[in-house]
From TrEMBL, chain A:
Pfam family, one: ETF
Domain Electron transfer flavoprotein alpha/beta-subunit N-terminal: 23-260
InterPro entries: ET-Flavoprotein_bsu_CS, ETF_a/b_N, ETF_b, ETF_beta_N, Rossmann-like_a/b/a_fold
Annotated source species: Trema orientale (Charcoal tree)
Family: Belongs to the ETF beta-subunit/FixA family.
SMART domains: ETF
Protein name as it appears in the record: Electron transfer flavoprotein subunit beta
The protein's role, per its UniProt record: The electron transfer flavoprotein serves as a specific electron acceptor for several dehydrogenases, including five acyl-CoA dehydrogenases, glutaryl-CoA and sarcosine dehydrogenase. It transfers the electrons to the main mitochondrial respiratory chain via ETF-ubiquinone oxidoreductase (ETF dehydrogenase).
From TrEMBL, chain B:
Cited InterPro entries: FAD-bd_oxidored_4_C, FAD-bd_PCMH, FAD-bd_PCMH-like_sf, FAD-bd_PCMH_sub1, FAD-bd_PCMH_sub2, FAD-linked_Oxase-like_C, FAD-oxidored/transferase_4, Oxid_FAD_bind_N
GO molecular function, one term: (R)-2-hydroxyglutarate dehydrogenase activity
UniProt superkingdom: Eukaryota
Start and end residues of each FAD-binding PCMH-type domain: 134-313
Species this protein is from: Trema orientale
Cofactor: FAD
Entries under Pfam families matching the protein: FAD-oxidase_C, FAD_binding_4
GO cellular component: mitochondrion
Entries under PANTHER family matching the protein: D-2-HYDROXYGLUTARATE DEHYDROGENASE, MITOCHONDRIAL
Protein name: D-2-hydroxyglutarate dehydrogenase
Protein keywords: FAD, Flavoprotein, Oxidoreductase
Keyword Ion transport: no
Length: 298, 563
């Protein structure tokens, strides 16, 4: 199975956002740009699924100006196998991105499409849902926890229980990947663990108000990842070196036959009002007076 | 590798929240004049009672001034210092007056009731150093708001022969920022405004009480950076940084404060204000006296304002966390980095496996960037430049080459600011990790780079278990932070370390204090690094500027000369 992951280049999470003086948008000149943190989590999850032996390839996709290639390089250095860059200079909004992703899905035919639940720049939280709708695929949004499978083994008549954490709970186990387990145990495991190997389904725990909801989805499916799902890995030098020889394929909007029609217009971007400095009151009476007569809360 | 993968899969959900989104995991910024108050509360738990039990019992209620009770405390204090960390016992200088109620009233007249602090809890914080290792018994903390007030205070103290200790963020590591006995504490934390900033020249003029991190934040909005950066930035104040000539992480790039401080306003012991607050890069008119106040640890005057040359903020910062198999590789890597990364190299730090192990075990929310196992040495290389893509390309090419020739065995390159912060956290959090690990003997040495690690190894064979010899530091500047971590303070351990560590350093023509200063801890050890004549001249300068010796007594200069 192939997994496609969408990654977005955004203003770095730790950078203080500044609005352009002409209020047309956010300042991005000379500002550190990085991979959207939710996309990083999506990519990490895809890599873990691949490492668990369920998927064979992870393809990272990014859309936007030429510099998106840098973000793709980061993705490749984390471990993605290939990159796809959809070059677009115009502003891309969720519906356009969803249409482009659908077009790419038709080219690449992945079994799973993973996205971050939202990008930290526009906070739309729409693309995953839209692309699932366009593809008519089931969707598991805000994935936040891997499935915890309790496996009971009988070795020499001695019962052992251990928890097996699977990325997303994809129900297939390749014991060859679990080398940490004693080889003897592996042998037994591969015979005695019966999981629905060919069911082609996945389980997602998603965050909802007041708790978790567990969904079982048929593949192919769309997943969007939430914060607590995993902790993304670092790009190590050996992997950066390997990434140098990985391919990034370029597509234009024309190649994908998608026309971008802006269906809305950004009128103005303004900063939120600045918080006023607090004042120190010298007595309880003064505090009560201020609450009554200035703040009008009591 | 494979083992790690399997292990990871079982373990990875143990930490549920990514620290980057958790506001509580941000480095704390303490804005009060007693910046490290909260830290104290935390660290008190583990060794306060152990070390200070008898002192604590004497703490409340406040004894009447100048009585035998007070003398009792003083006697204890001397023994305590001797017992715990080996500073030679020093007697209270009898020529200093005792504080009386007239003095308090006079100070209240100058500063107002609010800024004359006699509250026990606040005094306890101001009397105790960051490590809970040094503790004075001052009864008075003054919070001046202007140079004039500092001047009036010192003028009065000088005429009354009241000893004073200038205090900033109180983050010093050698007992220089807390009283030894009953010195009046003068904390300039309320003098915390930026006076001017010139966007063309990058020259910042500010008051001494500005917290370093606040200045960094202020300059960031202006597109500039401070030429110094250190782990204590959230609490330490620029006046203290200048007075102690703090070094820190960026020294390899921007040089020491002797180069970056363009001017100083300082108040002398007699209250005279010395206005040397120039904002010129070049000024060869007579003796450049401001340098006397940089690094003299408040023993010659109290710095009240500074002007600093700040470099423009460059947009492209890259950070690599690297593993080396031996110390020789670290050294070679430094030479190569200076050659190949020259103009963009902005930090070159190292830590050994013992330090890394300590950081991973005692700091919250950190993880090993290069799992699964520990490597012998780790190096952090930071580059700062103006062109994102070419800088990154240059650094990557350098690192990949270093890896091919075997100088580095593994490494990771930060891909965003959060990753960079977590790499820095491992290095910058080490003092904190050491504090949490138990008792710690800290040494801050300048040693020729090629000899540096020999000392660490000799110390390890010398001390053996159960102590841990932890080594890290600014390799780019030849500055080793040698820390001996032990379950508890022990005279026997100390006798094994001192004077051996000083003698060794002296033998290799190193400095026994690279950037921490001498303070109380090393005042008597100055001869290991400075000749007799030099120290004699220092003593003459001290006598000239502070004839009554009221400024930060018992520190910097050997006690034999200062009394």
């Amino acid at each position: 199975m192939k997994i496609m992951v969408a990654i977005k280049r955004v203003v770095d999470y730790a950078v203080k956002i500044r609005v352009k003086p002409d209020k047309t948008g956010v300042e991005t000149q000379n500002v550190k740009m990085s991979m959207n943190p939710f996309c990083e989590i999506a990519l990490e999850e895809a890599l873990r699924i691949k490492e668990s032996g369920v998927a064979s390839e992870v393809v990272a996709v990014s859309m936007g100006p030429a510099q998106c290639v840098d973000t793709l390089r980061t993705g490749l250095a984390m471990g993605a196998d290939r990159g796809i860059h959809v070059e677009a200079t115009e502003a891309l909004y969720p519906l356009s991105v969803a249409k482009l992703l659908r077009a790419l899905v038709e080219v690449e035919k992945p079994g799973l499409l993973i996205l971050g639940k939202q990008a930290i720049d526009d906070d739309c939280n729409q693309t995953g849902q839209m692309v699932a709708g366009l593809l008519n695929w089931p969707q598991g949004t805000f994935a936040s926890k891997a499935l915890d499978v309790l496996v009971t083994l009988a070795i020499n008549d001695e019962k052992m229980e251990f928890n097996l954490l699977m990325p997303f709970g994809l129900v297939k186990v390749n014991w060859q990947q679990h080398r940490g387990i004693h080889s003897e145990l592996q042998k037994i495991c591969s015979d005695s663990v019966v999981l629905d190997k060919e069911k082609q389904a996945l389980t997602v725990d998603r965050e909802v108000d007041g708790g978790l909801e567990t969904l079982c989805l048929d593949l192919p499916a769309v997943i969007t990842t939430d914060l607590r799902l995993n902790q993304p890995r670092y790009a190590t030098l050996p992997n950066i070196m390997k990434a140098k020889s990985k391919v990034i394929k370029k597509f234009t909007l024309k190649d994908l036959n998608v026309e971008i029609k802006p269906d809305f217009e950004v009128v103005q971007v303004t900063e939120p009002p600045k918080r006023k400095a607090g004042v120190m009151v010298s007595s309880v009476d003064e505090l009560i007076d201020k609450l009554k007569n200035e703040a009008h809360v009591i | 590798m494979e083992k790690w993968r399997a292990g990871r899969r079982f373990l990875r959900y143990s930490s549920t929240i990514d620290p980057r989104f958790n506001p509580n995991s941000q480095k704390p910024i303490f804005n009060s004049a007693f910046g490290n108050y909260e830290h104290h509360k935390e660290t008190e738990k583990w060794n306060f009672h152990h070390c200070f039990r008898f002192l604590t019992s004497n703490r409340a209620p406040a004894p009447p001034l100048g009585t035998s009770m007070e003398k009792g405390i003083i006697g204890n204090a001397v023994r305590f210092q001797f017992r715990c960390f080996g500073s030679a016992a020093v007697q209270r200088n009898p020529s200093f007056s005792m504080l009386n109620s007239d003095d308090i009233n006079y100070f209240k007249g100058i500063l107002g009731d609010k800024n004359v602090i006699q509250d026990e809890d606040r005094l306890l914080t101001a009397n105790t150093d960051w490590m809970n290792k040094y503790r004075g018994s001052s009864k008075l903390l003054l919070l001046p708001r202007s140079t004039e007030e500092v001047s009036q205070i010192l003028n009065y103290c000088n005429s009354r022969s009241l000893a004073v200790v200038p205090q900033g963020g109180n983050t010093g590591l050698v007992g220089g920022s807390v009283p030894v006995y009953d010195e009046v504490i003068i904390n300039v934390g309320l003098m915390n405004s930026v006076i001017s900033f010139d966007k063309v020249s990058g020259i910042l003029v500010c008051e001494a009480g500005c917290i370093l991190e606040n200045l960094i934040t202020f300059l960031d909005t202006q597109g500039f950076v401070m030429p110094l950066d250190l782990g204590a930035k959230g609490s330490c104040q620029i006046g203290g940084n200048v007075s102690t000539n703090a070094g820190g992480l960026r020294l390899v790039r921007y040089g020491s404060l002797h180069g970056n401080i363009l001017g100083i306003e300082a108040v002398l012991a007699n209250g005279d204000v010395l206005d040397m607050l120039g904002t010129l890069r070049k000024d060869n008119t007579g003796y450049d006296l401001k340098h006397l106040f940089i690094g003299s640890e408040g023993s010659l005057g109290i710095v009240t304002k500074v002007s600093i040359l700040t470099p423009p903020k460059l947009s492209s910062v890259n950070l690599a966390f690297l593993a080396c198999k031996d110390y020789f590789s670290c050294q070679k890597l430094l030479v190569e980095a200076k050659r190949k990364l020259g103009e963009i190299l902005s930090a070159f730090e190292f830590l050994d496996n013992v330090a890394m192990d300590l950081a991973l075990n005692h700091l919250e929310g950190v993880r090993n960037p290069l799992p699964p196992s520990l490597h012998n040495f780790y190096v952090l290389i930071e580059t700062t430049g103006s062109n994102e893509s070419s800088d990154k390309e240059k650094l990557e090419a350098f690192l990949l080459h270093a890896m091919e020739v075997g100088l580095i065995s593994d490494g990771a390159l930060s891909q965003d600011i959060n990753q960079a912060s977590s790499f820095w956290r491992l290095r910058e959090g080490l003092p904190e990790a050491l504090q949490k690990a138990g008792a710690v003997y800290k040494y801050d040495l300048s040693i020729p780079v090629e000899k540096m690690y020999d000392l660490v190894e000799e110390m390890r064979t010398r001390l053996g278990a159960p102590t841990k010899v932890v080594a890290y530091g600014h390799l780019g500047d030849g500055n080793l932070h040698l820390n001996i971590s032990a379950p508890q303070y022990d005279e026997k351990i100390l006798a094994q370390i001192e004077p051996f560590v000083y003698e060794w350093t002296s033998k290799h023509r190193g400095s026994i204090s690279a950037e921490h200063g001498l303070g109380l801890m090393k005042a008597n050890e100055i001869f290991y690094s400075k000749s007799k004549n030099t120290v004699q001249l220092m003593s003459s300068i001290k006598k000239l500027l502070d004839p009554n010796g009221i400024l930060n007594p018992y520190k910097v200069l050997p006690h034999s000369l200062s009394t």
